[in-house]
Structure formats: structure tokens, C-alpha cells
């Protein structure tokens, strides 16, 4: 992400994010299906083994194609203190969040102890980063920008909306619809198709009109595509549910692209690596948080009644209601995203001409 934003010169970020997000958007289409095939035909351990050849291939491609770093003559040392505070803080905190689903709440020591330790280390890093004169592993002063702060809040909420769905939807099709692992993955394909449909359009609109309008639209469509599942059951039409997932995917395709492009807008070149770290942190914590909340909701609603199909269906209905609520709540920070004024056609032609000249200069350089 850092490399791509720097190469782009921080221009047309919406369209750039729509292009580089294409492989990630294939995951909702291929991931559940491939995962279903692996689990059905091989051992569950292959879910982890399959990462080994992928990372080897990625390493080879990185060595072959990623440009070398440009040394500007200024020597910078690794922020060891910040790394020793922030890395374990996030790991322990996410571990504590994951334990919530196992113990059904915050009262277990297996939950509140890691959450307390992780929070303490995180606070220690914040105090250290704000008071040291050296360059820290994560520049917290970026969050003084309203746009950057709001974008990361939206990435946190998008992690809940996206990862929560990828956690709960396969279970819904298996536990309520009584589908096999493979067919549960196949029924999720419409959501991935919907995400692909709005990929390029969302990026263009965000670059032209600003991120606020397209983000609000995407959240509204996502909520609309999630709410019907809160009233679904084993008797619901599979075609209707597939159409609903297609709508949900249309909304989700815009959320991630707009939030990521907005987070990098207006940043200086030296701040891009810090932004990459921050966006990934917020997205990962949001994803863990979403899965923990939804699994806790399911566990509590199905306590001692997991064999009753009506109780199971009701538990999933409530979980989908939570997912809809998160999409609605995300509209609040989205209101603080900027909007761009429409440029008259004459000015747009002049602007395009200026961009063409910039590209000619870049190519000659």
C-alpha cells in the first residue's frame, strides 16, 4: 500500500484503490469456495498449509518487481521502544477480543487480563510517542487531521461489517439452511460479484465528488442488503437471499475503497508508511471485534438450545440485526468526510490538460 500510494503521487486515489483492491475483492468469491473444497477433500490443516506456497510466490515477486528503496541520505534508526510497546499491545489486545467469543463476555480472567495488559501497553506507547522527539514507529500526530481520524474510524467499522459477515454468513447457510461447507461457499458468490460491480465506479465518484456521498450511499446499500437476513429462516427463498447478498456486496464494494483512499488524501510522502500501518491496525482490530461480538451474540442466544432449529434461526436473526446496526452507526463518522465542489466543464478541461502536461513531464523525466 505504501509503495502504490507513493508511486501515484497521491493523485486519483479512489481509482487507484479500486484497481489494487481487485484481488482482495475476489476473496469473497473464491475464498469460501476454495475453503469449502479444501475442508471437504483434505484436512482442515491445509487451511494453513496453503499459505506457504502463496507467501513464497509473493516473496519472489517482491524481489523481482518491487522497486528498491531510494536512500535520501538521512539515516534513521528503528524505533525499538515503540515496537516493543505497540506490537505486543495489539497482539495481546486482539487475543483478548477473540477470547470474548469463547467465554461469552468480559467477566472471565482469560478475557479481561489480556485486554487490560494490551490496553496498558497501548497507553504506554501513546504517552511515549507523544513525548519523544525521535520518529516513532507510528506517527500519532496524523490523527490530528479530522479526515485521517474519521477514515480510520470507518476502517474499524468496515472491519466489523466485512469480517463479521465473512464469519457469520457461512455459518448461517450451514446451521440454518443446512448446506454443506462447499455449497455454503457457493451461495456467497453473489456478494463478491456485487463488490466487483461497484469497484471502479466508487473510486471515480470519490475522486470527483469527495468521499462523503459515496460512503453514505455504500453504507445505506450495505444496511439494505443485510437487514433481510434478520428476518430470514430455513424456509426463505435461496434466490431472494442471493439477490440480497448481491445488493450487500454492491454497498460493501464502496466502503473499503472510499475509506482507504480518504485516509491517504493530502498526506505528505513521509507520512504514507505511518498511514499504511494505522489503516491496517484499525481494520484488523475492527475485524476481530466484529467476529467476537457476533459469535458472542450467537452463543448467548443459543445457550443450551443449539439443537432447536427455531432458536438457532432466531440467534442468527439477532446477529444480522447487529450487523445492520453497525452499518447505520458508521454513517455518523461518514458525515465528517469532505465533499468536493463540482468543477465547471471548462475548468475540468483545463485541469485535465494540466494533468496531461504533468504526465508528459513525468514521462520525459
Structural commentary:
Mean pLDDT is about 80; it is low at about 345-355 and about 355-365. This protein has about 375 residues and is mainly α. It has helices at about 1-10, 15-20, 20-40, 45-50, 50-65, 80-105, 110-130, 145-175, 180-185, 190-195, 200-210, 210-225, 240-265, 270-300, 310-330, 330-335, 345-365. The chain has 2 domains: about 1-65 and about 145-340, Up-down Bundle (Growth Hormone, Chain: A), CATH 1.20.1250.20; about 80-135. Helix 8 (about 145-175) crosses helix 9, helix 8 (about 145-175) runs parallel beside helix 14 (about 270-300) and helix 12 (about 210-225) runs antiparallel to helix 13. It starts with a helix and ends with a helix.
Outline of this structure?
With 365 residues, the protein is mostly helical. The protein has 17 helices and no strands.
Gross morphology? globular
Q: What is the CATH-assigned architecture of the largest domain?
A: Up-down Bundle
User: How far apart, in Å, are the first and last alpha carbons?
Assistant: 24 Å
Write the element-wise H/E pattern from the N-terminal end onward.
Answer: HHHHHHHHHHHHHHHHH
Provide the helix percentage: over 70%
> Number of folding domains?
2
| Largest beta-sheet details | none
CATH topology type of the largest domain: Growth Hormone, Chain: A
How large is the count of helical segments?
Answer: 17
Structural class: mainly alpha
Strand content: under 5%
Average per-residue pLDDT, rounded, comes to: 81
